[in-house]
Amino acid sequence: MQTGWKLLGNHWYYMNGSGAMLTGWQLISGTWYYMDESGVMQTGWQTIGNQKYYFDGSGAMVTGWQLIDNVWYYFENSGELNNQPSSKPPVNDAIKVYYEITGDSSVTVEQMVNYYKKSGKPYPAEALKAGGAATIEEFCQIYYEECETEGIKAEVAFIQSMIETGFLQFGGSVKIEQFNFAGLGATGNGVSGNSFENVRMGIRAHVQHLKCYANTEPLKNECVDPRWGAWLRGKAPYVEWLSIPNNPNGTGWAGDADYAAKILKGIQDMKKIEVSMN
After folding, report:
1. 94 CB contacts (<8 Å, ≥6 apart)?
2. Do 159 and 74 reside in the same domain of the chain?
3. Using one digit for the tens of pLDDT, what is the confidence trace for 29-52?
4. What CATH number is given to the structural domain containing 198?
5. Quick one: DSSP state of residue 230?
6. Do residues 3 and 16 touch, judged by C-beta distance below 8 A?
7. 206, 182 in Cβ contact below 8 A?
8. In three state form, how does the secondary structure of 14-77 look?
9. Angle made by CA atoms 234, 150, 161, in degrees to the nearest 5
10. Does the pLDDT value for residue 120 go beyond 80?
11. Is the pLDDT of residue 184 over 80?
12. Between helices 154-165 and 109-118, what is the axis angle to 10°?
């Protein structure tokens, strides 16, 4: 009679002292493992009882900070994934730590304006003047103010709006007169998405939706985000998690796996722009 670990085909099983195959959670030699209902030892990401866990290649449940596919994740001592840990990932110059959406802005309005001007795209003054932003300077100032109010980094929201609108040229199903700068509600197949009464309200809705994903803090202004949902709170605290394929919660802003990389590239380029000392 065989007891202990047994390899059958490509799967590991564990037999107890009487030779019975074990299933479910098992503490073996001080390490937690999980066997499915057929007894197969699990590895990688697993959802068990509505909680996410990660088991390394040996089947061991991981805890603490873990670097998985070049992404830092934090797991409680119970093994449950915590999307909003109180600590930070280990410092390692060889590893890029995720870019948090919540926090103080690290760019100025001037940098935002000059980043737009460097794109070579004409500012749609006539259309946006009707919504209260006749110049790119006014437009960027509104973004900065709304982000500052809600504690969201202006560089994240602004670059995202540039990606979503093609530097305010629109051209897709969302029209410029909707004052929708983040594609809110534009789910594809010609669906034009939400409309807002003016530029500031459109920007406010964008920033509030970012905050919905980024943390669980209450809004400072009255909610104007029609896509706000309690089920999204804190599900994407990092720019990288805005890409649905890269989000362990299975949600996010866009289905493009490179969506976050595009935002981060824009942020990097904008930060390189020198600020005048006047």
Report:
1. none
2. no
3. 899 999 999 999 999 999 999 999
4. 1.10.530.10
5. G
6. yes
7. yes
8. EECCCCCECCEEEEECCEEEEECCCCCECCEEEEECCEEEEECCCCCECCEEEEECCEEEEECC
9. 80
10. yes
11. yes
12. 20
Q: Which residue has the tokens 């669906």?
A: 191
* CA dihedral sign of residues 250, 160, 156, 144: negative
Residue 1 has pLDDT above 80, yes or no: no
Comparing CA positions, the residue from 207, 253, 213, 219 lying closest to residue 233 is 213
The CATH number of the domain holding residue 13 is 2.10.270.10
260: β partners: none
Burial class (CB in 10 A: 0-12, 13-18, 19+), 175: middle
| CA dist., res. 94 & res. 218, Å (int) | 35
**Other beta carbons less than 10 A from residue 74's beta carbon:** 18
Domain that holds residue 10: 4-82
Gap between the Cα atoms of 75 and 46, Å rounded: 13
Over the stretch 121-166, which tens digit does the pLDDT of each residue have?
999 999 999 999 999 999 999 999 999 999 999 999 999 999 999 9
| 36 in a structural domain | yes
Residue with tokens 């004052």: 179
Share above pLDDT 90 across residues of the chain, in percent, rounded to a whole number: 73
Is pTM beyond 0.70? Reply is no
